[in-house]
Each structure stands twice: as C-alpha cells, then as structure tokens.
Amino acid sequence: MAIRVLLVDDQPLLRTGFRMILEAEQDLAVVGEAGDGLQALDQVRALQPDVVLMDIRMPRMDGVEATRQITGPGRDGPAKVLVLTTFDLDEYVVEALRAGASGFLLKDAPANELVQAIRVVAAGEAMLAPSITRRLLDKYAGHLPSGEDSVPNTLGTLTEREVEVLKLVARGLSNAEIAADLFVSETTVKTHVGHVLTKLGLRDRVQAAVYAYESGLVRPGAGQ
Q1: Nearest to 218, CA basis, from 158, 163, 149
Q2: Which InterPro entries does the UniProt record give (predicted)?
Q3: Among 8-17, 40-49, 99-108, whose mean pLDDT is lowest?
Q4: What is the distance of C-alpha 92 from the center of its chain?
C-alpha cells in the first residue's frame, strides 16, 4: 500500500511543489494539505496519514506544537512527523524533535532526498543527516529550553560500550559508520542501539541524539 502523506506548510507554492514530486512516486500518495498547525491536527484526525511533512513557522499554531499534539508523549497514532527547516536551521527544530518528530529535512533538499526521507520515516526509522545533525545540535541543544521535565540522569544504566555507541549516534553516524569506528559488525551495533533506547526509555535515534546532548554526555561545540 502507498505511504499516505499530509503536507503542512503555510506557502501554497511549496505545497504544490512537494505534491508534484511525491505524486510521481508509485508508493507515495498525498492525501491532504494544511496551511497551519491547527489545520494539520484536523487533517491528521480525518485522514490518518502515515507521514506528516511539517513546516516549523506557521500562523495560528506552529509546527512544534502541532508535532507535540500529533506524536508527543502519550500519543499512539500512526502518523510520523518529518520536520521541514530552512537552510540556516530553524532554532525550533530541536524542540520539534523533543516533541516527537522522527527527523528533519532541509526545504531545499533534492527531490530524491525528500522521497527517501519520507520512506525512511514511514518505516519507523529516524531521519538523521549526519553533517546537518551535528550542526543543529551543536548550535542549539546547549541553550534551548528543555520543557517542563528535565532529562533523568540514567546514563549509569548503560555499559561502557553502549555509552560509546550513544556518543556516535549523537554525532549523527549511521550503523555502518559506527561499526567501522568500533571495529564490530552492523548487527552488533543495532543490538547496542536497541539496548540504549530500551534502557533510556527513548523512541528512536533522534531522541537518543538529543538526550546525549541534554544529559551532558556530548557537549555542543565539542566536535568529535
């Protein structure tokens, strides 16, 4: 079955462009559009999309709050949120990731990257572009507000190798890159990542990366 996509952006021309790109793919179907976060909530309830392509800065309700209400803590719906951000990296993207987004994509990304990102997110994986992830988290994770609840210090539950893996996830490395860095197999890396997510109570690699910064395991601007 085709992946059902909802387009959320306050610029009609951008929505039209995205629709043209996605409808050219046999496995993708655009089921609706919304011009702000409130419309997005209504459309999600009515259309039950698999993936919501979500802009950040919109009138009435921004993409962060809309993401929180669609996929945040306590939400159990099928919709995954892929956040759209500008080239200079919106300062609110980290907040959207905390709110439950499965990843982010630059608005000027090539068409093939947009299509692949939607497929990745629909499959339940996190969309983390390594170089962009490092820039984003290094720039913002150290000083953005973390919301009402502080991150619990549960790092002590991880083994030494699991901590190593978490650090590399926070740098945006793929399983293959982590395997090469640690001289282990990709299967072993997947196992470690699974243990990290389970022990820390995290949903995916995106939340793991943000957690690593917020807990102080990886510090903004620290590079490697």
Answers
A1: 163
A2: CheY-like_superfamily, NreC/VraR/RcsB-like_REC, Sig_transdc_resp-reg_C-effctor, Sig_transdc_resp-reg_receiver, Tscrpt_reg_LuxR_C, WalR-like
A3: 99-108
A4: 12
Tokens of 210: 């943000």
Q: How far apart (Å, rounded) are the C-alpha atoms in residues 197 and 170?
A: 13
Nearest C-alpha neighbor of 137 from the set 172, 108, 106, 163 = 172
| Residue 125 burial (C-beta neighbours within 10 Å; 0-12, 13-18, 19+) | middle
Report the alpha-carbon distance of residue 71 to residue 205 in Å, rounded: 15
Phi-psi sector, 117: left (phi>0), alpha (psi -120 to 50), beta? alpha
d(CA 144, CA 58): 20
Closest residue by Cα to residue 170 from 113, 112, 89, 97:
97
- How many whole angstroms separate alpha carbon 102 and alpha carbon 81? 6
Backbone region of residue 103 per phi and psi (left: phi > 0; alpha: psi in -120 to 50; beta: other values): left
> Each residue of 48-92: pLDDT tens digit?
999 999 998 898 899 989 998 998 665 656 789 999 887 666 677
